[in-house]
């Protein structure tokens, strides 16, 4: 009798487990179906030039032989001296400017680097960037946007400052927002813009050469000046590390822009190791309210003052006072009624 009851109970348990597993599997399928996104697209870098040819004559324009481009040796440990980088790049002009002498580049590009107290990383990056951009025959200028003072770092605000200040120095078609600790590994990963938002760092070694999550737009991203204004730039309200790039990606998505990426084998970057910055206080909670803040938190609400502008041999340094963070981040979270839903939050991170 007991043996029969045991067999019956085991059979019923197996049936229940199968039903639960089926329901979990079915729920995941339904979640994936309704949350399908097609706004992140992989495109080959040479398409940036091919698409530009549709709108512009290629007479006198720079030609690139992609078969001769490829992986480059990237050293993230040895720190070069500034003088050695200058000597290795004799054609770079004061202010970190260079343009090809034998052809016209397809775009004029401003490289925006938010910065504070990372001289070791900066030298390693400049040793890599200058020769790579010259190999790609890009008309470029490197801007170092340095935060004055000792308050928490505000990456988003510095990006916005870089956008505005770059146009005080010249006219640019494309802006590449570049973290100081990331080194591109492949010369085929062109530092150019398309008509959308181009996430250049599609595979970082610290993330095992995978995108952190589907909508990730951090590290290095290129965008033309019209689209950057269209999304109101970065949010100014994230003090400390994290979430400002999530907010930026959400703006891209909600504006109807594609997020394009090079394939992972081309969009590879190495990260120079360093101690992590202090995380943004209540960053995830603030991100829930990004949509309500978006219309008035960005380029149109930016306040800062320039301490000085100096043209260094390898870059243009712009030291800025961006103010102080509020005593509490609660000032950005006074009305939770307009926060995005938990469903939206889950869909954003787990599409």
Automatic annotation (TrEMBL):
Membrane topology, as annotated: Single-pass type II membrane protein
Annotated membrane-spanning segments are: 20-36
Q: Where is the Galactosyltransferase N-terminal domain?
A: 69-194
Look up the EC number in the record and give it: 2.4.1.-
Specify the pathway. Answer: Protein modification; protein glycosylation
Would the keyword Signal be found if you checked this record's keyword annotation?
A: no
According to its UniProt record, where is this protein located?
Membrane
SUPFAM superfamilies, A to Z: Nucleotide-diphospho-sugar transferases
Name the Pfam families for this protein: Glyco_transf_7C (PF02709), Glyco_transf_7N (PF13733)
What main location does UniProt list?
Answer: membrane
| Galactosyltransferase C-terminal domain boundaries | 198-274
Q: Which UniProt keywords apply?
A: Glycoprotein, Glycosyltransferase, Membrane, Signal-anchor, Transferase, Transmembrane, Transmembrane helix
DNA-binding among the record's keywords?
no
Q: Which InterPro entries match?
A: Galactosyl_T, Galactosyl_T_C, Galactosyl_T_N, Nucleotide-diphossugar_trans
Identify its protein family.
Belongs to the glycosyltransferase 7 family.
Q: What does this protein do?
A: Catalyses the transfer of galactose onto proteins or lipids.
Question: Per its record, how is this protein called by name?
Answer: Beta-1,4-galactosyltransferase
Give the species.
Aplysia californica (California sea hare)
Lineage here is: Eukaryota, Metazoa, Spiralia, Lophotrochozoa, Mollusca
